[in-house]
Write a structure and sequence with these properties.
12% strand; 202 residues; alpha/beta; globular; binds 2'-deoxycytidine-5'-monophosphate; five-stranded parallel beta sheet
């Protein structure tokens, strides 16, 4: 069976949590496409040309490194705005998406550019305030000592870079179901997403 669930949305809206839960529930393969941009950003910070780096990614780039540091997070959104970097990463994502057995991909342009024919498209969002609070708690748990104002500004700047770039900007596909998780806990957000997928599988 070829069946793709495309999940897009801004930072810290819950895409990863929901995407992983949907993949686990249905036994689908899962790809966090942000890791491709993070791995490219890490290589750029090490002095590589970002386009060559995107072309040269190997599984170790994603599996072996801590790609969630604030520096790599920023570098990822910088390289993600380079059209040639995005182009280098398209084929890998499309091949992953159309492997048999069902897939879930989360990112910013999955329903609009990578898989415009995905069987299910979900755009997950939440208010800026709630997303900043979630990211703040996550960073604190990992031992980062940041103040919430800085986290809020960081999310706002990253959203602006992701939404205002000319190639594949962050926006909902016209046929995406919009899931606003501002007032939902994880279980409710996951349940909503599962219902959307089930209704398309039926
Ligand atoms: O989802 P994330 O925070 O790990 O994404 C890291 C950066 O990569 C973020 O600035 C958006 C960008 N990105 C993108 O442009 N397209 C994707 N499909 C996934 C992520």
């Amino acid at each position: 069976m070829i069946f793709t669930v495309a999940i897009d949305g801004p930072a810290a809206a819950g895409k990863g949590t929901v995407g992983r839960a949907v993949a686990d529930h249905f036994g689908f393969a899962y790809l966090d496409t942000g890791l491709l941009y993070r791995a490219t950003g890490r290589r750029m910070l090490n002095g590589e040309d970002p386009i060559i780096a995107a072309n040269a990614l190997v599984p170790d780039d994603i599996n072996r490194h801590n790609l969630r540091t604030p520096e790599i997070t920023k570098a990822a959104s910088v390289v993600a705005a380079i059209p040639e970097v995005r182009k280098e990463l398209v084929v890998f994502q499309r091949v992953f998406a159309r492997q048999s057995g069902g897939t879930v991909l989360d990112g910013r342009d999955i329903g609009t550019v990578i898989c415009p024919d995905a069987e299910v498209k979900i755009f997950i969002t939440a208010s800026n305030r709630v997303r900043a609070q979630r990211r703040y708690r996550e960073l604190r748990k990992k031992g980062h000592d940041m103040d919430i104002g800085a986290v809020f500004n960081d999310i706002r700047d990253r959203d602006a870079r992701d939404s205002e770039r000319s190639t594949a900007p962050l926006k909902p596909a016209e046929d995406a179901a919009v899931l606003d998780t501002t007032n939902l806990d994880i279980a409710d957000a996951v349940n909503n997403a599962l219902q959307i997928v089930k209704s398309r599988l039926a």
